[in-house]
Amino acid sequence: PAPLGDHGPAQIIAMCNQKGGVGKTTSTINLGAALAEYGRRVLLVDFDPQGALSVGLGVNPMELDVTVYNLLMERGMTADEVLLKTAVPGMDLLPSNIDLSAAEVQLVSEVARESALARALKPLLPDYDYVIIDCQPSLGLLTVNALTAAHSVIVPLECEFFALRGVALLTETIEKVCERLNPELRLDGILATMYDSRTVHSREVLARVVEAFGDHVFHTVIGRTVRFPETTVAGEPITTYATNSVGAAAYRQLAREVLARCPAA
Ligand code: ADP
Ligand code: MG
């Protein structure tokens, strides 16, 4: 991909699947890091009260005084007060911790409760090419906020039995948000993760996913490797932890697909 002279306004991508353990957080970190390697300015938003994205980038969520929660709920709070630089040049983080779980309840009584995140991110968009929101494993109000803020959705699906179970509910939710709150929202892609080429089973699941979603499926498939759990412990992306690994190459390939499918404006 060509280097960029200018940056922004950012494309916002929601990494979303109400099932846990499918690779949302791993894909957020590593897609972000690969896009940053290609010279893009990237902001990662930890939008899961578990704070796994923050942990995966070497941040201890319990030690944070301010998080994305404060940016969401407190008038007058600016992003500069919350933003953290990561070890990856060009990639920043809006961290979160358990405080964010209160937002789900508190937002219910707010006006325009679905667009709190969109409002919070708006001033940041000129500074970045991509904002990637790591959603929590639910279809509740926080996830609806992410979908309302986003231009596109990436749905990681693990190549396992029952991977497709629940996806209909997710696509219905995306359609509803599209109709009622955010007409520009697109499902940019289904990302097959945890693929094991040695098993017939993985290949069958992948074939079913392609049958169901056709062109919406990214050509890039993320293989299953212990390298990913290792990177979580190391607190860095696979692109720097194991820069020549198959996993790093896969996320670089995904980044090139994303650059083509959802080019920054
Ligand atoms: P989610 O955010 O959807 O809950 P994670 O990205 O946290 O999922 O992944 C769940 C677990 O699986 C983590 O321990 C992670 O390190 C591991 N993992 C993610 N992707 C892969 C992969 N391609 N191969 C093997 N393990 C993976
Ligand atoms: Mg996660």
Overview of this structure, please?
The chain is an alpha/beta fold. Helices cover 39% and strands 18% of the residues. The chain has helices spanning 24-37, 52-56, 68-73, 100-106, 116-121, 141-149, 167-180, 200-213, 227-234, 238-241, 246-261; strands at residues 11-15, 42-47, 84-85, 91-94, 130-135, 152-158, 186-195, 217-223. β6, α7 and β7 (186-195) form a beta-alpha-beta unit. α1 packs across α11. Bound molecules: adenosine-5'-diphosphate and magnesium ion. Adenosine-5'-diphosphate binds next to α1, β7 and α9.
The CATH class: Alpha Beta
Helix content: 25-40%
Distance between the termini: 15 Å
What is the subunit arrangement here?
single chain
What is the CATH architecture assignment?
A: 3-Layer(aba) Sandwich
Strand order of the largest sheet: 3-4-2-5-1-6-7-8
What's the name of the CATH homologous superfamily? P-loop containing nucleotide triphosphate hydrolases
Helices and strands, in order, run as EHEHHEEHHEHEHEHEHHH
Global mean pLDDT? 94
Number of domains: 1
List cofactors, ions and other ligands: adenosine-5'-diphosphate, magnesium ion
Low-confidence stretches: none
Main sheet makeup = 8 strands, mixed
